[in-house]
Design goal:
Helix content: 25-40%
Strand content: 25-35%
Largest sheet: 4 strands, antiparallel
Shape: elongated
Order of helices and strands: HEEEEEEEHH
CATH architecture: Sandwich
């Protein structure tokens, strides 16, 4: 019974470590860059330092997220790299790549009048955001690999400990 209690205690103390992964999403609309940041459990990342870096590597803005995990600033259209640093050392990066249309550069494609409706533009923005979210979620990070290996080693260590006491 003590062994089972020890195993449950170990598993419960390790689980919250994964809850501190930060997810950040960026949106650029009407001259304003908005960064939304959340922990993996959905809690907003409050008072985290946000650094905005342009395509040349220059820091163009810095600030902090509000109580809802949101940081907004007016910036000219460009491609930006956004770094979110939480005070306890949790960090994530995301990029926003603007299309020529968003940058105000005319495209060669001729659009029909009905294609310019708000619904078409909204659908296009939603598809862009979904692609950005999919890329973020599909990235395998080194810390996740190390965490998985830690779980495996820990489980085998507990099994070895239980067998050595038997």
């Amino acid at each position: 019974m003590k062994k089972l209690a020890l195993l449950i205690l170990v598993l419960l103390t390790v689980w919250p470590a994964y809850a501190h992964r930060i997810n950040a999403f960026a949106d650029y609309s009407e001259g304003k860059l908005t960064v939304m940041s959340y922990f993996s459990d959905g809690t907003p990342v409050r008072n985290a330092r946000v650094t905005v870096i342009d395509s040349k590597g220059t820091i163009v803005a810095e600030g902090f997220t509000d109580a809802d995990g949101i940081f907004s600033i007016e910036l000219p259209p460009s491609n930006y790299k956004i770094v979110v640093n939480e005070s306890l050392g949790h960090k994530t990066e995301t990029e926003i790549v603007l299309t020529p249309k968003e940058k105000g550069i005319p495209t060669k494609k001729v659009l029909q009048k009905e294609q310019l409706s708000g619904v078409s533009q909204l659908e296009e923005r939603i598809l862009q955001k979904l692609n950005q979210i999919e890329k973020t979620l599909n990235r395998i990070r080194v810390i996740e690999i190390i965490g998985g290996l830690g779980w495996i080693v820990g489980i085998f260590g507990i099994i070895a400990l239980l067998k050595s006491k038997s």
